[in-house]
Design brief:
Chain lengths: 451, 225
């Protein structure tokens, strides 16, 4: 039953949003159903992941998914640009149906090595993703949450943060468009961005440089203290960002973007959870933490994308489907434990529907563009809340997280995503308006500046 | 004249040393052929790189992608080798050859190549229409998965989710799901493998037809004892 606006206002104080990078649902959570463990989850079916429908043909050979029992760095990033995603979805030229079996071919098309266990077809054993597994055991996950568009990072991040995207693929700096920050500011709703890395994703949008050097953007390390600060009310919407692997000046990236091992992202998510769950009850008991991945990052998922007939982006591009499924966790005292929701569709704009339901002053929706997504069948996150039996957020156990990785010199700048971060930071440092402020606020950037 | 030649040679040698010491390390190629062998068969490992070069042979780890990882496992022995060359090795277990090239500057370059012993080969393709009620895949053993000279076809198993008819080397067999056949026993695995399947329901082959995602068989090698 849909919650009323007043019920939401009473129950929900702060919406926390975390957007990780580049992992598919099956890659992170497919293990939940493997070997018959959770029959309510549409993950990988075992005992061996060799179902005929899972086979990815490429160059005459068939490749099957495999269980990854040891976390580690991949040899290289996986293809996940607009063209590669189209290949990965495996639209059969005869039937027109999506077979989700082009992941091996896309990998080879970008120069991947020929071997038996292909990196894009690996799915994690529970031992590699203990934090994600614990979230799935103790809160609500959605196994029909799709990345909004069948393309790469920037468009999907913008769909989550704005409900529309001015770009169809990841290029360099993002042209000006309004986002959730503008929507909230216009309605005098408090917000804050915490970022674990040197700079925020919003730095890719020049329009926000003035805000980034201000008090609304803070280092993640200060979140826990801020939540305990009685003199500073917790904002109503908080965006928490990991440190981005695409940013070559990051010392310790943890956004789950390949080729990173996943342990760093798992550790980051545990820190996010501990900060919120240990906040004063007035905050934690009314918190809803939404954790999603922006897109699948080139990793295999077995569920075809959701059709979005007639959907045209603001660039004029027609997107006939969503992208593949991604892991999505709703972590709150207001959701059921160990629940997997499979009878409702979600995409990244489900977050914005929820924000508007809770915070739009006069009962309005978020935007016309988000309404279009709702018309396509994508539900609000509010549909996942259960206010009948609020509970205390359980303490998270300590998980052993290890990630074998070689210390190496600065990562080479190769992808458009990397170039975007470099261009953003270099431009800010070259700007007489922002240079001293950004270096004062984020002293770690002196090293990059000097180099 | 001789002095000029000497100067030229010394300059060339100096340049070579400078490139070796101060240039960026790189790897042009690393290949293991054949990539799939019978036990104790020999393989040729060939490489070409620039920089100080080492070659290691380590067992293929299970439970992790067998693609190149970004580092060699601790404790593995790396042999110094010339910057290019070929060696012949006898292989008994699935192995990874790991080539690394280093220079004084820049990131080390590395590349891996694997060899599998007695490894079955799944052949697969996305089907297209071969008639109103039939779909077909023509699969060929990929060059990168080439078997050694000793291997012949053993059994062939249908790993599609539907019944298929398999044709190869003038032989054919109809195989239910998961069924195996010895019809192709001792055939040369080279050449086309034609896999066909009937459409048992729905519209004729074309838009909206119930076409399988892929048609796949597994060709198991027969190695001499």
């Amino acid at each position: 039953m849909a919650l009323t606006r007043s019920e939401l206002q009473d129950a929900v104080g702060t919406i926390f949003i975390v957007i990780m990078e580049n992992r598919s649902f099956d890659h992170v959570l497919g293990h939940l159903s493997f070997n018959g463990k959770r029959k309510d989850v549409d993950g990988v079916i075992g005992p061996k992941p060799t179902s005929p429908s899972y086979i990815n043909p490429a160059n005459g050979q068939g490749y099957s998914p495999f269980l990854v029992t040891q976390d580690g760095a991949l040899g290289q990033d996986l293809p996940h640009d607009l063209k590669s995603v189209n290949t990965q979805l495996g639209r059969n030229p005869t039937s027109g149906k999506y077979a989700m079996n082009g992941f091996a071919q896309a990998y080879f098309d970008l120069g991947g090595s020929v071997t038996n266990n292909l990196p894009p077809l690996g799915f994690m054993d529970r031992s590699c993703v203990p934090v994600s597994g614990w979230f799935a055991d103790n809160f609500t996950i959605c196994d029909r949450w799709f990345s909004s568009l069948p393309t790469s990072t920037h468009p999907n991040k913008l769909m989550a943060l704005a409900g529309k995207s001015i770009v169809d693929d990841t290029f360099t700096l993002i042209p000006e468009q309004d986002t959730l920050l503008d929507w909230l500011s216009a309605r005098k709703i408090d917000w804050r961005v915490y970022h674990d890395g040197a700079i925020s994703f919003f730095a890719l949008m020049k329009q926000y440089w003035g805000l980034i050097v201000g008090d609304g953007f803070r280092r993640f390390d200060s979140l826990q203290g801020d939540l305990h600060d009685a003199d500073s009310p917790t904002p109503q919407v908080v965006i928490i960002e990991p440190a981005y692997a695409d940013a070559p000046f990051e010392q310790h990236p943890n956004d789950n973007h390949p080729p990173l091992p996943i342990a760093f992202g798992e550790n980051f998510l545990s820190r996010v959870y501990r900060a919120i769950s240990s906040a004063p009850a007035a905050v934690s008991s009314r918190s809803v933490l939404i954790v999603i991945h922006d897109e699948h990052g080139g990793f295999w998922d077995h569920v075809p994308p959701q059709p979005t007939p007639g959907y045209t982006s603001i660039t004029g591009t027609r997107f006939e489907t969503t992208g593949p499924r991604v892991p999505a966790y709703i972590i709150s005292p207001l959701v059921s434990a160990k629940r997997c929701v499979d009878d409702l569709l979600f995409d990244h704009t489900s977050i914005l529907q929820f924000v508007a339901e809770r915070f739009a002053p006069s009962g309005g929706t978020y935007s016309h563009e988000v309404d279009l997504r709702a018309d396509l069948g994508f539900s609000s996150v509010s549909k996942l809340l259960d206010l009948s039996a609020p509970r205390v957020m359980p303490p998270m156990p300590d998980f052993p997280l290890t990630a074998p990785m070689t210390l190496q010199q600065q990562r080479p700048i190769q992808s458009t995503g990397q170039r975007a971060f470099v261009q953003a930071l270099d431009s800010m440092l070259a700007s007489s308006q922002y240079r001293s402020q950004i270096l004062t606020k984020y002293p770690s950037l002196h090293a990059w500046d000097a180099a | 004249m001789n002095t000029d030649i000497g100067r030229t040679l010394r300059a060339a040698a100096g340049a070579l040393i400078a490139v070796s010491l101060f240039g960026c390390a790189s790897i042009d190629h690393l290949a293991v052929t054949p990539a799939t062998i019978c036990p104790s068969e020999n393989v040729n490992v060939s490489w070409s790189a620039s920089g100080t070069t080492t070659l290691a042979q380590v067992p293929l780890q299970s439970g992790q992608s067998d693609n190149c990882v970004d580092s060699l496992a601790a404790g593995a022995t790396q042999d110094s080798v010339p910057s290019s060359g070929t060696v012949r090795r006898q292989i008994t277990d699935n192995s990874v050859f790991y080539l690394e090239a280093k220079s004084w500057f820049g990131k080390p370059a590395h590349r891996c190549a694997r060899v599998f012993v007695n490894q079955a080969l799944p052949l697969s393709g996305i089907p297209s229409c071969a008639g109103p009620r039939t779909v077909r895949v023509v699969a060929r053993r990929p060059a990168e998965s080439a078997w050694g000279s000793q291997a012949r076809v053993g059994t062939v198993q249908n790993i599609s989710g539907v019944t298929v008819t398999v044709a190869h080397a003038g032989l054919s067999a109809r195989l239910e799901t998961n069924a195996s056949s010895e019809v192709f026993s001792m055939a040369d695995p080279s050449g086309d493998w034609i896999i066909e399947s009937p459409l048992t329901s729905g519209p004729n082959c074309g838009p909206g037809a119930d076409v399988p995602n892929s048609l796949s068989i597994q060709v198991n090698p027969a190695c001499p004892h």
